[in-house]
Amino acid sequence: MKGYNFSKFDPNQNGKSRFEQLLDIFMQLLTYTNGDVGEAMQWMNELDKEYKLTQNDYGMGDFYEDLKDKGYIDEKRENGEIKITSKTEQGIRKKSLEEIFGKLKKTKQGNHNTFKPGGGDEINPETRPFQFGDTLEQIDFTNSIRNAQINHGVESFRLHEDDLEIRETDFKSQTSTVLMIDISHSMILYGEDRITPAKKVAMALSELIQTRYPKDTLDIVVFGNDAWTIEVKDLPYLQVGPYHTNTVAGVELAMDLLRKRRNPNKQIFMITDGKPTCLKVGKRYYKNSFGVDRKILNRCMSLATQCKKLKIPITTFMIASDPYLQKFVTEFTETNNGKAFFASLDKLGAFIFKDFESGKRKTVY
To answer: How many distinct structural domains can be found in the chain?
Structure first.
């Protein structure tokens, strides 16, 4: 029979068990290994050798068995294939959310607040006197009946217009967002991993919307030579391909997705590290990696103008510091009347969080 194991208190462990501490590291490694359990476990063993993560009573083999028993990984006995489960996929998204956005509680309402009171989901704690035109649903009957008792007495109960109090609700604006992620080969060039921070941001943003803004929508578009959508559950496995950067295809697909959404507020977030270098003309690819190609540039600017007419702002998060690349982003942003952030990799999540959250303070007429 297994008993209790008492050990010296370590304030840095925050009350976590040995398994939970190792699980935090394992979740981080899965993001870097694109969901490859075997590679992540090899890194765990290397880290254990270097930093002595495990103890004599709990080894890395015990941790692996616990991962299986607790439903974090699924091992196929017939072919020996090891995959992470949906529980782990959600766990990675939650870890990304905690890392970038902090801990947020789940609510049943969309929560993009505006300064305009109106019909909404969340009751405002403040009340006001009844005015002509107020609806029956807005009357706070508890306070109104109390006012009637105070003003007219309990024995001769009467409810007058002056007794009524109105409790307003805060209007909640719903938003449809398309997050575009550049997966061209340059996202891993020059010894700098740019795709992993982009994946973390996408996972955190998706978890944020699903938990705090469930009435909002989020579509994720990846673009290389072409553009296509991926599901939230596919994010941990996202990899960079041997692609050029077809920004045009990404924006066109994002526009198509947003046309189908009924929300009045629509926006595109684009994470990229470079200039557009590819365009599909008919069945062939037009490519030019040497500088900014005017043919590709003009098509990008045309789409930026179309989005402006459709009231779809494009916010570009540029994770490269080349001056001529920043010049392209600046021109693209001015054409769309959108926004641009020249963000370092470690600040990418904070920039996107700030911009996304600021949308809830806009009044929609």
So the answer is: 3
Residue 112 domain-assigned (yes or no): no
Q: Which two tokens stand for residue 291?
A: 């500088």
- Whether residue 6 lies inside any domain: the answer is no
Domain containing residue 79: CATH number = 1.10.10
Q: Which residue(s) pair with 279 in the sheet?
A: 286
pTM for this entry:
0.73
Q: Are residues 188 and 267 in the same domain?
A: yes
CATH code where residue 290 lies: 3.40.50.410
**Domain assignment of residue 103, yes or no:** no
| Tokens linked to 150 | 């105070």
Provide the domain limits for residue 61. Answer: 14-84
Residue 93 lies inside a defined structural domain of this protein = no
Pair 59, 142 in one domain: no
- Give yes or no for a contact between 244 and 291, defined as CB atoms under 8 angstroms apart: no
Closest CA to 319 of 211, 182, 209, 165: 182
Residues 247 and 148 both lie in one domain: no
- Per the CB < 8 A criterion, the answer to whether 240 and 208 are in contact is no
Tally of CB atoms within 10 A around 31: 21
pLDDT tens by residue, the chain, 365 residues: 455 555 554 555 567 889 999 999 999 999 999 999 999 999 999 999 999 999 888 999 999 999 999 999 999 877 888 999 999 999 999 888 888 765 444 444 444 444 444 444 455 667 788 888 777 778 888 888 888 888 888 777 888 888 888 887 655 568 999 999 999 998 888 778 889 988 988 898 888 888 888 889 999 999 999 999 999 999 999 999 999 999 999 999 999 999 999 888 999 999 888 789 999 999 999 999 888 899 999 999 999 999 999 999 998 888 776 777 778 888 999 999 988 887 777 777 777 766 776 665 443 32
Hey, how many other C-beta atoms are within 10 angstroms of the C-beta on 292?
Answer: 16
Residues 153 and 180 in one domain: no
- Alpha-carbon span 341 to 71, nearest angstrom: 40
User: In sequence order, what are the beta bridge partners of 268?
Assistant: 178, 314
How many whole angstroms separate alpha carbon 273 and alpha carbon 342?
10
